[in-house]
Amino acid sequence: MRQNYISWDQYFMGIALLSAQRSKDENTQVGACIVNPDKKIVGIGYNGLPYGCQDEEYPWEREGEWLETKYPYVVHAEPNAILNSTSSLKDCTIFVTLFPCHECSKLIIQSGIKELVYFEDKYRDSESIIASKKMLNSAHVTYRLFNDININVITNNK
Q: Nearest CA to 98 among 73, 70, 125, 77?
């Protein structure tokens, strides 16, 4: 029997990392994969514009006048995965490549997801992430870091 196969966490985080590669954002690519208790994928998403909005017609900048940045237009990976879900999210786990902002955490909590597995937490000291963790803790949504995966295999970086 083969011994060096990947774990479930590596598999689902790999799907999230691969999904992030669909993002048109030049600065931040985020992916999400929602898995039910039976280890079946029930939702996938990445950060991008809403359906019908053409990528080339909207700004992707991070700085400047608010309406000239990406922030009022881009849907984050987590809500996209939730909206793309194919079944109930009660007691599911969401694998995300970046710890979710406070707005995404509200949706994660409301959807019934009970565990959050994240690849990186580079904004950990921001007010948004502090608020996010406070809400997740209150709602008894567990979260844990998982980055035991070779990202170069997923992103095709050598």
A: 77
Q: What is the distance between the alpha carbons of residues 23 and 114, in angstroms, rounded to a whole number?
A: 26
- For 34, list phi and psi in degrees, rounded to 5: -105, 135
90: its two tokens? 């009660």
Query: In angstroms, how far is CA 53 from the centroid of its own chain?
Result: 21
The dihedral built from the CA positions of residue 50, 21, 30 and 94, taken in this order, carries a sign that is: positive
| pTM of the predicted structure, to 2 decimals | 0.93
Phi-psi region of 107 (alpha: psi -120 to 50; beta: other; left: phi over 0): alpha
On the 0-12 / 13-18 / 19+ scale of CB atoms within 10 A, 74 is buried
* Active centre residues (catalytic): 78
Q: What are the 10-residue block averages of pLDDT along the chain, 158 residues in total?
A: 91 97 95 98 98 95 96 98 97 98 98 98 98 98 94 59
Q: DSSP alpha helices (H): ranges in the chain? A: 8-20, 77-83, 102-111, 127-138, 151-155
